[in-house]
Design brief:
This protein is α+β, with helices and mostly antiparallel strands and about 300 residues long. The protein contains nine helices and ten strands. The strands form three sheets. The protein has a five-stranded mixed β-sheet with strand order 6-3-8-7-10. The protein is globular, with a radius of gyration of 19 Å.
């Protein structure tokens, strides 16, 4: 099915959310982002004793800005299976197996900084979630910056033994509208509970101020991946100068940045705890050994 054939769908019309969880085939990965298989979205997100952090799969996060530099936030709908009712970036989802043109990028694609498969998936999901028609988004204008490997158990929604969570290598995509360019936004209520255009200063205040509430007076909740992205990358680096970020390759690094979620998202049905921090430490030690060996051999 091509992008233009996709249409926003209400869960009650044709397929339920459970149907999509079983039908959609996520792209399974090893820790170096090599494709090793596929499985249902449902299976890849189940946290258990056998799979404490689910199954590592590919994802993307879209950060969409208007011509004035404001970013479009979305609040995930209360009907979502995972991380419901949390604020996050414009669109977070998964490229999938089975689409034509393909949404599966190869390592060669990534090395070239292309990632057209992920960009196609982003266009598809912007339409499905926010009703932004594909004719209003040009895939070639997405800026693929980097990749983030993280995991988080959804204990806030489902309790300390939550059977659901995320474990992803997340492709970061930036997009900015041109002057006088507008979007028609028509959110799918089963996907999106609310949306809001914000400046960097407004977003930082929303996250840092514990007294901030939504229009219904409820405390603001944030997706674990978005909060870390804002603190480590978005606010201090990428959003500091959008012209620099989008117009140059300064932040295009070809790397996979790894981090464990915050402690409040440890646990789940598999009792998961810190892992990626240990993995990175082991990698750093191995790289140091290799560098020392290389120096000795050259000497």
């Amino acid at each position: 099915m091509g992008i233009l054939a996709c249409r926003p769908m209400k869960w009650g019309q044709g397929m339920s959310q459970e149907d999509f969880m079983n039908k959609d085939q996520c792209i399974l990965l090893d820790t170096e982002d090599n494709v090793i298989g596929q499985c249902s979205k449902k299976k890849s997100h189940i946290f258990s004793e056998l799979a404490p952090r689910g199954i590592l799969h590919r994802a993307f996060s879209v950060f969409l800005f208007d011509s004035e530099g404001r970013m479009l936030l979305q609040k995930r709908a209360n009907d979502k299976v995972t991380f419901r009712s949390v604020w996050t970036n414009t669109c977070c989802s998964h490229p999938l197996h089975g689409y034509n043109p393909t949404e599966v990028d190869t390592q060669e694609d990534v090395k070239k900084g292309v990632a057209n498969g992920v960009k196609r998936a982003a266009v598809r999901k912007l339409y499905q979630e926010l009703g932004i028609h594909p004719s209003q988004v040009e895939p070639s204008r997405f800026k693929f910056l980097t990749r983030l490997h993280y995991w988080a158990a959804d204990v806030v929604t489902h309790g300390p033994k939550a059977p659901w969570g995320e474990h992803e290598i997340d492709y970061i995509l930036f997009y900015q509208l041109k002057e006088n360019e507008k979007l028609d936004i028509n959110p799918n209520e089963e996907e999106v509970g609310d949306y809001k255009w914000v400046t960097k200063e407004e977003l930082v205040k929303m996250i840092e101020d514990p007294e901030m509430t939504d229009k219904n007076g409820r405390k603001l909740l944030w997706s674990p991946w978005f909060r870390i992205i804002v603190e480590r990358f978005l606010a201090p680096l990428w959003w500091k100068d959008l012209k620099l970020t989008l117009g140059t390759d300064q932040f295009v690094d070809g790397k996979i940045h790894r981090f464990d979620c915050s402690e409040e998202h440890f646990g789940g049905a598999g009792h998961a705890g810190p892992w990626l921090s240990k993995l990175e430490k082991t990698r750093a030690q191995e790289e140091s050994k290799q560098e020392k060996k290389k120096t000795v051999d050259e000497y």
